Each structure stands twice: as C-alpha cells, then as structure tokens.
Amino acid sequence: CDFETDLCKALPELNLQPGWIRRNGQSGMGPPYSDHSGNDSAYFLSLSSEMRSSSTTLRTNVFLPTDEEHICQITFHYWISRTSGTLMVGLQRHSEDTITNIWQDSGEFQNQWKSNTIRINSTEKYEVIFSWMVETQRQGETVAIDDITFSEGC
To answer: Out of the domains of life, which is the source (predicted)?
Structure first.
C-alpha cells in the first residue's frame, strides 16, 4: 500500500475520514517534502492542516483471525511534525465496540520519517485503525503515513 496510484485495497475510500489527503512532496503543502525514501514526486497520506476535529481515523478492511500459521505483521512509515498530538494504531475485534490501542507515538523525534512494525494477534475478525488524536490544533502541524505493508498472514 504505497499510495502511488490510489488508497489501495486495504484502506477503503469509504473509511477515509475528511482530513486525510493523498499527496506528494511537490504539492506545496509544506513538510514532508518527500516520501520516506526521499522521492519528492512519490505519494503518501497526510492530514491537512485544515483538519478541525480533535481526532481522525483511517480504517482497514476486515482481516480474518490470526493463528500460528497466519501471523499478521503491519509495517508502515510515519512522519510527525511538532508534538501536540498522538498517532495511534488500534485493533477493533468484531465482537467489541471499543478499539484496543496497540501502538502510539507522539513525535519525540520530529520532522523525520520513522518506520514501525506491529504484530497482530486476534482470534476473531478484526480491523486495524490508524488514528491521530490532537490536544490543540497548531499551525503548520503535519502527520503523514507512507507505505503500509501487510504480511501474508493478514
């Protein structure tokens, strides 16, 4: 899921909340000025600075349960400029209404691409949810996500 041509099958357009936009470093929208590999014409997802709500989410399609044979790992790259919010990855199992937080980062090392791999265990169908929670909206704040990779076990 590299966002070069679209949002890819794992992230249905329906679940793209207002605020997330697919763009590249040449868009004139401020940092990041390239994707995680340094290519300024390559696409990634970013939150527009016009986002007014205190949180916005990006939800995957439904995945089947994991087991010893089907281990699901999700690897992704992310960028956070300034720290007045937290990027979180959560798991929503189909029998639950709540989202279980499985990872978060509030941008200790700002203005650089970082990568992360999360291993998911679920005995039932589930969705993965990327969310950005903001305490106070600041000018020039950017959050971006690039190259989400789902292992075969997903």
So the answer is: Eukaryota
H-assigned helices in the chain: none
Q: 128 CB contacts (<8 Å, ≥6 apart)?
A: 59, 60, 63, 74, 89, 90, 91, 120
Q: To 10 degrees, the CA torsion angle through 4, 19, 80, 107?
A: -140
- Whichever domain contains 105, its CATH number is 2.60.120.200
The Cα–Cα gap between 98 and 50 comes to: 28
Taking only the tens place, the pLDDT of each residue in 56-70 is 788 888 999 998 888
Domain residues for 82? 20-150
Residue 9 lies in a domain: no
| Cβ contacts of 42 within 8 Å, gap of 6 or more | 2, 4, 24, 25, 34, 35
pLDDT computed for residue 18 by the predictor: 64
Placement of tokens 């340094």 in the chain: 38
- Quick check: helix, strand or coil at residue 146? strand
Q: pTM for this structure?
A: 0.86
SS3 151: coil
